[in-house]
Amino acid sequence: MATFRGTASGDALPPVGYNPKDWLAYVAFIRDSAAGHFFLTNPFTTAPQDGRYILLLQVTLGRVVAWTGIDAFTVLELSRVPLLALFLLALWRVTGVVLNDRRERTLACWLVLFSGGFEVIVDALSARLPAQIQWQVDQDLWHLQGWNTFAAFYNPLWVAALALTLVTLVPLLRPGGPRGSVDAATLGGGLLLLAFTHPYSVFVVLAVAVARPLLAWIFGARPAGLGVTLAGLAPALVVLALVIRWQSGDAVYRATSGNAFGPQALSVTWYPVTYGAVALLAARGWQRWLAEAHPARLGLAAWTLAVVFLHGSTVLNGYHFVLYLHIPVCIVAAPALGRAFDWLRGRSLGKLGAFGLCVLLFQAPLPLTLKCIHESRREIVEPGGMQVVQTLANLPPGNVLAPAEFGNLVPAHGPHRVYVGQWFLTPDFERRADEAFEAVSGQAKFDDLIRLVDGEHIRYLVTTTHVAPQLAALLGTRVDATLPVGEFAVLVLDSGT
Q1: Cα separations (Å) of 387 from 12, 135, 229, 286?
Q2: What kind and span of H or E run contains 464?
Q3: What share of the chain is helix, strand, coil (3-state, %, to 5)?
Q4: Could you tell me which residues come within 8 angstroms of residue 81 by beta carbon, excluding any fewer than 6 positions away?
Q5: Is residue 60 within 8 Å of 443, Cβ to Cβ?
Q6: Given 127, 298, 353, 471, which is the most exposed site by the fewest CB atoms within 10 A?
């Protein structure tokens, strides 16, 4: 796909706190919700659609935007505060289910929040690797994969998903298994909330629900709570199936939901790097838990093995699931960490040893923060591009034909839909991106240009100043006005009205 850029010097940094492609999509949906919609419309395509996306976090934040008048970017960034509070409450509850000692629960929380692996070492060595291997290493160890929970916190949607997942998993983690109507409601209600917040989390809950009775059979234990699990999950799955069937009746939703499947997985061979000293403590923890037949071993083992299976999937794009593994690893590691501190306390250099252990465990947030600051350079947009986006934001709603890199920005800043934008949310992205570039750069044939503009009801066409006269002549009376925007121009057409 070709790139469409201007020549102006100086850059602009959009208010993006995470992977820009995803962050901009979140804001675009928040804007749609702020306009009063519950069933959201995909603004990254001009294809006909009814609006059947159900995204509870974006809907909630959209209501906040509507009530307060605060900018959607700001609301999304500030949502971290209440979401992190909810996550901490859910985490503390989970630790209380599987750990009896308050000190161990506290250590587990510290590990979950701040521990990490040794990616910084591999980062320092990867520059010496062959280019193809270096690319794969960088991709697998990318800090926004969510190998540890601190890294996952960069994405507010993941924070919400983790908090809801913890609440939903409580009945399955309880030593005695799910019991009673409250647990059934927790499983069923939690599954539905997750399905319309972060659908990948649904697979995690279902995988744990299957793994627990299977492990109970392997260990020779009674698969307690199986009836309650089915009573909670079965009705929720029926409701979910009916809703998905309705959603899939819309061609745009059906096309984009298919993008959830794919071969991108993450290998278990990275564990020594991504979990480091935490993995060693977890191994010691599991050794003791199995020897003592710890009552919480079934739930934690089911959680751990289910996520290991999922993040290695080459069908479900397994990389989406790795963020769920750090928490159970830390919980099992916490008792071993407590014993390590106790052992060090009685040694002559115990304080120094404890300090060294803390460095090994808790050094990850610093390099992660530095990597995110460095990566912010990838989010920079040239000033001409931001001027185009701001110009479009002040125009009445309409369909926009622009290069994909502009199309990814436009819906987050204004009330428009674009012919091509976010790669995941634009059906047939590659073809549309090529067509859009050829059209706005003056390379498209006349018939193809007219067919695209008229067929997609394009109201605004973004091009460069030196191509604008050529396109205006080809489009003739369709052009109502040409708005110069530095080195770019916006052609205002009547075909979108």
Answers
A1: 10, 33, 54, 56
A2: strand 458-464
A3: 65, 5, 30
A4: none
A5: no
A6: 127
The overall average pLDDT reported for the chain is 91
What is the DSSP-derived secondary structure letter of residue 147?
Answer: S
Q: Is 232 helix (H, G, I), strand (E, B) or coil?
A: helix
Token pair of 483, please? 């708005």
Give per-residue pLDDT as tens, 351-381. 899 999 999 999 989 988 888 777 766 666 7
Kindly report, residue by residue over 227-267, the tens digit of the pLDDT.
999 999 999 999 999 999 999 999 999 999 877 778 889 99
CB contact set of 484 (below 8 Å; sequence gap of 6+): 465
What's the CA gap between 265 and 320, in Å, rounded?
8
- Going from the C-alpha of 398 to that of each of 54, 134, 145, 185, the distances in angstroms are 23, 43, 35, 44
Residue 496's φ and ψ, nearest 5 degrees, are -90, -5
Place of tokens 């390590």: 340
Q: Return the higher-pLDDT residue of 7 and 210.
A: 210
Helices H / strands E in the chain, number of each? 25, 5
Sheet holding 458-464, edge to edge: 417-418, 399-401, 458-464, 488-493, 479-485
Residue showing tokens 């995110």: 372
Please give the angle made by the CA atoms of 355, 362 and 133, to the nearest 5 degrees.
125
Strand 458-464, strand 399-401: pairing: parallel
> Token pair of 460, please?
């605004």
User: SS3 for 234?
Assistant: helix
Would you say 420 and 462 are in contact if contact means Cβ atoms under 8 Å apart?
A: no
Residues 6+ apart with CB under 8 A from 36: 66
| Selection from 411, 399, 403 nearest residue 385 by Cα | 403
**Cα distance between residue 118 and residue 70, in whole Å:** 40
CA–CA gap between residue 212 and residue 214 (Å, rounded): 5
In whole angstroms, how far apart are CA 29 and each of 37, 76, 362?
Answer: 10, 11, 36
Residue length of the chain: 497
Secondary structure (3-state) at 346: coil
Separation of alpha carbons 45 and 407, rounded Å: 9
**How do beta strands 417-418 and 399-401 pair?**
parallel
CA angle 133, 136, 137 (to 5 degrees): 85
- Going by the DSSP 8-state scheme, the letter that residue 394 receives in this structure is T
